[in-house]
Amino acid sequence: MAAATTAKVKLPADVVTTLLPKIQGNSTIATLSPRKPQTFSEHENIIFTPTAEAEVVEEGATKSSYEVGTSFVQGVRVKLQTTTRVTEELQWADEDDQLEIIDNIQKDQAGAIGRALDYVVYHGINPAKKTALASSYPKLVGATGVHTITSVADELANLNAMKRALVDYEFNGIALSRLYACDLSELRVPATGAPLFPSICT
Length: 202
Description:
The protein is mainly alpha-helical.
């Protein structure tokens, strides 16, 4: 392996395909989304709203039809970047150490991009500067059509309210903030004192 330059570590051009699988473990959006990540392109997505119901008909009778509702959502591309600077020791490190350093840089950057994805999609926040993005960037929190509940002091009641809000939808998981997960881990069974969610905040 050739010695790396001290000015910057140049990662391969296809590094985005290397980072994508690593990002998934650091982002709730990437983990819960069934969609394959799109790179360097904007897409208009068609949302189908199925309304089909089976109909009981007599032999030879006219059959009814139904319309499939569609709507369009324009995807918005957000450019995320991370910069990692290294000292000149990398230039003189042996090949095994250079590979380990570059691998650690990729892991660090994958974590940063994964967290940024959640910040941008949920809250519309620039993660590095902790500032709100322009209104042209949509966000889930406060968006029209996003189901919300009014929280109360009883966390079990909140969980039940969230469950009822999703009764008409198929979902593949739930994402919790670490603070909320720790709050849930403190809930106890009244009769025994055993934790209701023993491994939710570990």
